[in-house]
Amino acid sequence: MLLAIDIGGTKIAAARVENSVIVERRQCPMAYEEAGFRLAIESLLQAWPAPDSVAVATTGYIDAGRVRSVNLDIIPFWDGFALGDMLRSLFDCPVALINDGQAAAWGEYLVRQQDRPQDGPANLLFITLSTGVGGGMVLDGQLRLGPHGVAGHVGHAGVRLAPADHQNCCGCGRKGCLEMVASGSALARQATAIYGRALNSAELFAMAAQGDAKAEAIIANAACAVAEAIAGFYMILDLSEVVIGGSVGLAEGMLDRIQRALAQLPVRNSPKLTAARLGGDAGLAGVVAWAKEQP
Ligand SMILES: [Zn+2]
Fold this sequence. Notes:
This is ROK family protein. The protein is α/β, with parallel strands linked by helices.
């Protein structure tokens, strides 16, 4: 049995996988300190049979077997955490780790190749707008991880558009990152500053849907920032398709807003823009597909 785990900024999802098919899925909230994280994993997997191998898609990136964080603000203990060693001590079996955006990119690429084996996208960029902004890319049919595992961290591309609250100092240490404008936590932060009360991104989308102009402006600005970033990636990578996922990316109307913003930019042959087909479980489905190819 393969145990697949997807660790995000707010939740941990796990799946029991038999013959590449998910037979049972569970999830729990992410823990923000090490002891609580270990407890969360243990209780999440309670009463499941011992796995033969474990494959993990995680926030952060994997460098020399350790997880590293680009944005140090999201999970305090994550940067340098020996996640692989912890899981090997729990399960006593091989553990493979990959970034969640990279796993999802591979999963989204494979479903498109299965549908269109003759003309699937050779160059696909996956962007997840979620707690943070992450991603992964497949170039010339190859999933790119990079020598330090960082490839595809599109949330830290610089954008010209400032967030509504002008707080653009990113947790990575730079200013003007896409993640500061268009992530779920960035939308919540901007909404909270503009309205003077605690709001999350789902509430902001609901307000925009009811015609609140200020809410719409925050979301539209985020969509424009994503489009601007896509235009830049397109010119560098000659992308065939850009796939948008994550809770914010898949929120009502977000893809349309990005599409409209992209259409207004002077980009020739701008790439096809599509919604993630694997939905909220793209990381889990992607890591199952990726695990099949691991030695
Ligand atoms: Zn950044």
